[in-house]
Each structure stands twice: as C-alpha cells, then as structure tokens.
Amino acid sequence: MKKIKLKRVFFIAFFSLLSVIILSAFLGFISFYEPPRHGRVIDADTKEPIEGVVVMGYWDINYLPDIFIGAPSYYYDARETVTDEEGYFTLPGLGPWLYPGYLQGPYTSVYKKGYKNVSFSWKSKIVLGMETTYSPTYERYNLKWKKGRLNIPLQKPDEEESVDVSDPDWRHDGNKIKRYLQEIDHHSHRG
Length: 191
Known about the structure:
- The chain is an alpha+beta fold.
- The protein folds into two domains: 1-31; 35-190, Immunoglobulin-like (Sandwich).
- The chain has helices at 2-27, 125-128, 136-141, 178-190, and strands at residues 31-34, 37-43, 54-62, 73-82, 88-91, 95-98, 102-111, 118-121, 144-146, 149-154.
- It is elongated.
C-alpha cells in the first residue's frame, strides 16, 4: 500500500512540476542567462586591431511569444564597452534574469571616428550552431567567428563617401551608453 501511495505522490509531483515548467516557458517566466559577448574589431583593409572603438548593445523585450508576428517590442536595457589596444572587447551581458517576456538582441552598433558604422543583431554561436554564420547581415559585414570571438572588420569610407553618425534609437537610456553618445557628439562637432 505504501509503494502505491509513494508512486502516486511521485507521479503527481513530477507532472505538476513538468506542467509548471511548460507553462512558464510559454509565458516567459523562466529564468534566462544572457551571457557577455566577446569580439575583436579590426581594420578591414590592414587586418590590424583598432583601439578605442565603442561597442554598444541594447536589448528589446517582447511580452508575447514569437508566434505572434508583429507583436510590439520595447526597450529593455543597454550596455557598452571600448576595445583595448589589441582590438578585443567584452560586451557585458544581462546575466541571469527572471522576467515575463522574451529578450531580443543585443542589437549591436560598433563606432569609431574615421570608419563606417556597423550595426547588427548579435546572434551567439550557440544559436547559429556553426563557426561561420550564414546570416545575410553577417555576410554583408564579413563578420566571422575566430577563437570563440566575433571578428568585426571596420571599413574606412571612400573619399567621396560620408559616414552616417545618426543618433541611436530614441528608446535608449542615455546614461547607459554615454561613451557611444560622446563619440557620436565628438564626430558631429569636429567632422
């Protein structure tokens, strides 16, 4: 009799837990970990590292599952960093979080005065499942994975070409992307 009660309790507990996990996953209440992103910025022509490049990433949140195409998304958070003398950087992630929604991003902008801006949605190697991506955006900018880091080549504009340094999306929290805004402001005032 005790074995049957114990099996029944285990059965009920197991399926209750499983039901909560499935429901939570659908509603977005499960805890997630948004890791830091590692990369290197190089000159597209010389292949030399570029120091002092500002890398900014921001995340949007969508409160409806991805199956609802066209559902509105809202600014969630932003992070920024600057490349070191070897062009390496680590864009801080959001870390662990528990929130009712689905994160999108980071949408990443890479900026250095004298180079063309690069903006793309950063997909991790885990999501893409391969060393070299097949994303049209990654192909357009020639972004490649090297030694676990995303290699981002920046191009200098042609002599007759101007560099677009428009302000970032209005939804950003200016206190979280101060360096990025300072670089754009510096470029705008000194040409």
